[in-house]
Specification:
Elements (H helix, E strand, L loop, with lengths): L9 E2 L2 H5 L3 E4 L2 E5 L9 E10 L8 H10 L7 E10 L6 E3 L6 E3 L4 E2 L3 E2 L11 E5 L2 E3 L1
Parallel strand pairs: 1-4
Antiparallel strand pairs: 2-3, 4-5, 5-6, 7-8, 9-10, 10-11
C-alpha cells in the first residue's frame, strides 16, 4: 500500500502554473515568475465548452425538416467544469472526466473516486476520493 503525500486538497491559481514567464538560455531555465509544478493535492478548475445538441425527431418527415433548419439555428454551448488535480500519492497531474460530477466547489467534493492512470503499471494501483477538501482512499 502506497502512502499519501497529501491528505488535503488545496486550490491554486491556474495562471501561476500555466502562464509563467520562463526564459531558457543554453538549455537552462534562467528566470521564471510563476510556480513550476503542482504539489500533491493541489488542484484548479478547468472550464470546458460542450456544444448543446437537440434530440433528433422520431418521424422521417421531422428528421428531414430538422436537417434543413439545423444550419440556421444556433444551438449554443454549455460550460462544464472539470478539475485538474495533482495525485496525492505521486504528484502526477490528473484531469477528471465529464462523468465525475463536482458536487461542491467550496469545499471541493467530487461524487466518485478518481483513479490514477499512471499507477496502472504499478503493483499497487491507487484511486482516491475528494470529500470536503480531504483526500482519502
Amino acid at each position: 500500500m502506497q502512502s499519501l503525500k497529501a491528505d488535503l486538497a488545496r486550490e491554486v491559481s491556474r495562471k501561476e502554473l500555466v502562464e509563467a514567464e520562463t526564459l531558457v538560455y543554453e538549455g537552462r531555465i534562467i528566470s521564471q515568475s510563476g510556480k513550476q509544478t503542482m504539489l500533491p493535492g493541489e488542484f484548479y478548475f478547468r472550464p470546458n465548452t460542450v456544444p448543446l445538441e437537440e434530440p433528433l425527431p422520431s418521424s422521417w418527415l421531422g428528421r428531414c425538416y430538422w436537417k434543413l433548419t439545423r444550419r440556421e439555428q444556433h444551438h449554443g454551448v454549455k460550460i462544464v467544469h472539470t478539475v485538474l488535480i495533482a495525485c496525492p500519492f505521486d504528484g502526477q497531474p490528473i484531469l477528471s472526466t465529464f462523468s465525475h460530477k463536482i458536487l461542491s466547489r467550496e469545499p471541493l467534493t467530487i461524487d466518485r473516486e478518481i483513479a490514477c492512470p499512471y499507477s496502472q503499471f504499478d503493483k499497487n494501483p491507487h484511486a482516491f476520493a475528494v470529500n470536503q477538501r480531504e483526500l482519502g482512499l
